[in-house]
Specification:
By secondary structure, the protein is α/β, with parallel strands linked by helices. Helix content is 24%, strand content 24%. The strands form two sheets. A seven-stranded mixed β-sheet has the order 3-2-1-4-5-9-8, sandwiched between helices.
């Protein structure tokens, strides 16, 4: 199902077609989200011991336990999902909007934002969401300003978004299709497992990212792309804040 958001208030649109939907499907959604994606798992496991970071849009918190040697402050717009994520101690989980994160700037060693930014319904808001993640990270000094450690010493973020190019998936989207779509979530109660008559269908808004669009948004948000790629119907990128002067 395609959609258009041009004439609608983005805040109200996302409230209806993203936030309220996840509140209603939180428990069922969480039961289907338990296996870490390989690149996210690798990113977290390669972090130095003692690193402190963010999981922005944490959902049920499935990534909080991947690396026991780091500490993660998780956040999500859904109160119901935050309650589930808060079970993963010693990590902390709070209710927060991606566009107004309650964290200090330039502090964290890393951040992840997995399958979140594509729920923002305008280009500007998606760029602002990425900028909010990047602003939370420790900026790096230029190599010549840190001769003892010429490698990047600032924070880094891993961002995942759904791809438009999914022609081999069951959804079948590909280049040339509408990038703004409504994706159904079908939820059945125990009494309707054998019938579709009383099943509930919720529709979530997604912006499907075309090849190269995520990298462009990161640059527009003031970041630098270190690495990027495609994995199972998703585009991903590792980004860092631009270097600062000493």
């Amino acid at each position: 199902m395609t959609t258009t958001t041009a004439d609608q208030n983005p805040h109200e649109y996302e409230k209806e077609h993203v936030h309220e939907v996840y509140e209603q499907i939180a428990s069922h959604f969480s039961s289907t989200r338990y296996k870490p994606w390989p690149i996210v798992q690798r990113f977290l496991q390669e972090l130095p011991t003692g690193s402190i970071g963010l999981d922005v849009g944490c959902g049920n918190g499935k990534y909080l336990t991947v690396n026991p040697n780091v500490f993660i402050l998780a956040s999500d717009r859904s109160e119901s999902l935050v309650k589930i994520a808060s079970q993963h101690r010693p990590h902390s989980s709070v209710i927060a909007d991606n566009l107004s994160l309650p964290h200090p700037f330039s502090l964290f060693d890393f951040a992840i934002s997995i399958a979140v930014v594509h729920h923002l319904s305008s280009h500007l808001r998606r760029v602002q969401a990425i900028a909010a993640v990047l602003e939370s990270l420790r900026p790096a000094l230029r190599p010549e300003q840190s001769p003892a450690n010429p490698e990047h010493v600032g924070g880094k973020a891993l961002i995942y978004v759904w791809a438009l190019e999914q022609k081999t998936s069951r959804r079948g989207w590909d280049e040339g299709d509408n990038q703004d779509v409504m994706v159904p979530w079908v939820m059945k109660t125990e009494s309707t497992q054998l019938s579709n008559e009383n099943s509930l269908t919720f529709h979530r808004y997604y912006h499907l990212y075309r090849h190269g669009e995520l990298e462009q948004d990161i640059i527009e948000a003031g970041g630098h792309v270190v690495e990027s790629g495609y994995e199972k119907d998703n585009w991903w990128a590792i980004a860092v804040p631009k270097c600062i002067e000493a």
